Amino acid sequence: MKKKLYIIAIVLLAINSILFIIDSKNDEKIKAENFLSKFKTAENTELDSLSTANEIFSIIDEEFLKKNFSKRWIYTKKSDSLWYKRIKVPNTVGMARYNRFVQTLFRKYKVELEKVSENEPAKKLKFYFSVNDSLSGILELRLVSGLDRKIKFNGRMAIVIDDLGDQWGPEYIQGLLEFPKPITLSIFPDHWASKRTAQAAKEKGKEVMIHLPMEPLKGSVEKEKIKITTDMDRIAIDSMIIQALKRIPEAKGLNNHMGSKVTSDYDVMDMFFDVYKDKGMFFVDSKTTSESYCSLIAEHYDVPIFECELFLDNSNNEEDIEEMFRKATNHIANGSDILVIGHARLNTYKTLLRMVTEVYPEIDYVFASQLILK
């Protein structure tokens, strides 16, 4: 009996051993399948990344060729971990313009830009970027002389908002201070909310200008304490500019409020710019008259200047404002920079917000100083 029980025990032990081996092999098979599955997933992810990188490099080529670059200027090298593209570019276009163009392109296609490196002496500009956190890329631009093609870049737009300093409470005033694109706020030098508005604008990263009242052919600036009129001499003009700068020290530039009579008076504007040249600021001619001498005299005194191309809101109707904005974009499409002026009004703010965020978000919006100061 004992012998039979012993034999049964040995048989059961053997069966358990066989089952254990089978289970172990099944476990190994499952682990192998899981590993293979993970490997295939990783492989597919890498392929997806490479495909995305292919698309990005194709887009870069396409976008540069659209601007009249030559295929002969483009060189590409690819490896498993790094993609490198070098493009020769004419040095007739500044490095800053190429930088803006590439960064705008990367933002448009949601490419993660890790670093930009500028080497002025070597005339090189490098963009380090990544794709899906798995692949690195370098785009290098080399500025070369003798490449004579005319490069076709879209222009930039600077939006200036006049007549700030009279109000603080309305939502659209706060909206302008929080505007999602670069915008230049031109503030009256001596109105009740001027100082508060200028300080808030600077804190919010907006550019500040002085909106200096100047005598018009029709109308009056008599109520203004700080102003320029045609009966002033050089000392009086200097005094007015100094007072304006004391009220709004945040200002980087100045434009005229009204001023059709002053800006068309050669002698007065000569005195004005002779004084203003030492302030280290730029000037925007609001172009309230076609007879303005501002550009002619400012250039004589080496004062950085830019002219307003159009007013957005001569009409307060939103559809009219939108039409003027679309008109401004035609200049940009033709490669010209443009400065436009609007006013601190509800309909202007609402229309501008819609145009820059929904209709034309791809435009290169800049501060006024970026158009003027080279």
Describe it.
This protein is α/β, with parallel strands linked by helices and 374 residues long. The protein folds into two domains: 49-144, 2-Layer Sandwich (Beta Polymerase, domain 2), CATH 3.30.460; 156-372, TIM Barrel. The chain is built from eleven helices and 14 strands. The chain has helices spanning 2-66, 95-108, 171-177, 194-203, 234-247, 260-263, 266-276, 294-300, 318-333, 346-359, 368-372, and strands at residues 74-78, 82-90, 112-119, 124-131, 135-144, 156-164, 184-187, 207-214, 253-258, 282-285, 305-307, 310-311, 338-343, 364-366. The strands form two sheets. Strands 6, 7, 8, 9, 10, 11, 12, 13 and 14 form a nine-stranded parallel β-sheet that branches. Helix 5 (234-247) packs across helix 7. The longest helix is centred in the first third of the chain and has 65 residues, at 2-66. The protein starts with a helix and ends with a helix. Mean pLDDT is 86; it is low at 28-50.
